[in-house]
């Protein structure tokens, strides 16, 4: 069943952690645009007694509005601090499923292109030699006519990193209206599929969000 942007899809929950499968179209928190229901609004309803109300109810990272998949939410202050430290130290391993235009080769690689905010369009990111170090590993899953389906593993967490990295190489993400070109797909083909980390008790935790229906259908249509 396709996720609703008005209801949390919970992958896992215990006393210290909440793992959400965010649908495309859901904004993580308020910006400068018109008022809409956000992920933070849904978390406020689900966690009304959260000790992390002033920290966006425990959100430790974010996804773009039109990117779907896993989001981690801390439910205790200790876990909030711990998870933020793991992200900062690059000890949370993330894997995205991505479809890009073109026939990307080689089948495995690491993209190392520094990124910074565009000096004019401040909501956008551009490659710049003086920018922040940004690194994305990738592995091709398969090829379609005119497209490449792949796994991307960002080791840094820059804004729009995966989208800008592939676009700058000439392989824009399908459906990306900002860094790509017009497509028949209504949103960008970018899905946070898997997250893995060692929790506060020293146990390895791995969470997976399956590819949503709209992206699965798009791949099926390409196969016909």
UniProtKB/TrEMBL annotation:
It is an enzyme of class 5 (isomerase). GO terms for molecular function: catalytic activity, acting on RNA; pseudouridine synthase activity; RNA binding. Keywords: Isomerase. GO terms for biological process: enzyme-directed rRNA pseudouridine synthesis. Its EC number is 5.4.99.-. InterPro entries: PsdUridine_synth_cat_dom_sf, PsdUridine_synth_RluA-like_CS, PsdUridine_synth_RluC/D, PsdUridine_synth_RsuA/RluA, RluA_PseudoU_synthase. The active site is at 64. The keyword Transcription does not apply. Residues 17-168 form the Pseudouridine synthase RsuA/RluA-like domain. It catalyses: a uridine in RNA = a pseudouridine in RNA. The keyword Transmembrane does not apply. Belongs to the pseudouridine synthase RluA family. Responsible for synthesis of pseudouridine from uracil. This is Pseudouridine synthase. It comes from candidate division Kazan bacterium RIFCSPLOWO2_01_FULL_45_19.
